[in-house]
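Exam revision sheet. Question 4 asks you to relate a sequence to its structure. Input first:
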Amino acid sequence: MNTAAPTGTRARTRRAILDAAVSVLARNIAASLADIAAAAGVGRTTIHRYFPERSDLLAALGTHVMEQVRQATERARLDDGTAAEALERLCQEYFEIGDGLLLTFDNPDVANWADWEDDPETDQSMTRLVERGHADGTIDPHMPAQWVMGLLWALLYAAWHHVREDGATRHGAVDLCLRTLRRSIRPGD
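Answer key, structure tokens:
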């Protein structure tokens, strides 16, 4: 099998399959490859050309979601504005990739934890961001970086759950998430 990264049409098809798999499997981990193919707008044989076995697709999803996390972190522009503003942008970006994050966190067969552990840049970026917030006075200095990161993930999970289980709108859930984050990290309490 060719291990070179696909380009052009092949790359778009592969990405469409992975995006569809995230969407479908996040709602039903037992969904069939036919369900994923239909969501991706391709035939089942096309999926098998890219991912010969279901396990190949699941393994690729962990790497795909990790790349989405990297891209979301870049889009958040962590060096712009105050640290609190950057943390809010990061929260919004991560909220948008919630299906993939929930899928990987909730299903060990999907997560490629080696990729996550071998790429500490995201955690280091968040740590630097919180430390900058301590210095610029926008994040409570009594809140260690690990605590703020855990808080961010907990709030995101609550927001995703609020949409899925409680029928909240995405806009409403992210608004509650950001409002709670803002109040939680504010210095001076």
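Marking note for examiners. The chain has ten helices and no strands.
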